[in-house]
Design brief:
about 70 residues, mainly alpha, about 0% strand
């Protein structure tokens, strides 16, 4: 049992590392090609979009968990 749990943890860590690598490469090579205007609205959008997405996911997950109990 412990060996299976350990292998699942290793697989999860590898997935996180791969996702991080893909994100870093996308930022390094793809992002500079996207013309983003330099203004306050662009900065606020870039900063707050991940926060708003995560809030939405947590709220949806909380509602789903409430409905399951």
């Amino acid at each position: 049992m412990e060996e299976n749990a350990t292998s699942l943890q290793v697989i999860f860590i590898v997935k996180v590392i791969v996702a991080s690598l893909v994100g870093a490469l996308a930022i390094k090579y793809i992002a500079p090609a996207i013309p983003i205007p330099v203004n306050g609205l662009s900065a606020l959008t870039i900063i707050f979009t991940p926060v708003i997405v995560m809030m939405g996911l947590f709220i949806a997950r909380g509602r789903r968990d409430q409905n399951n109990t």
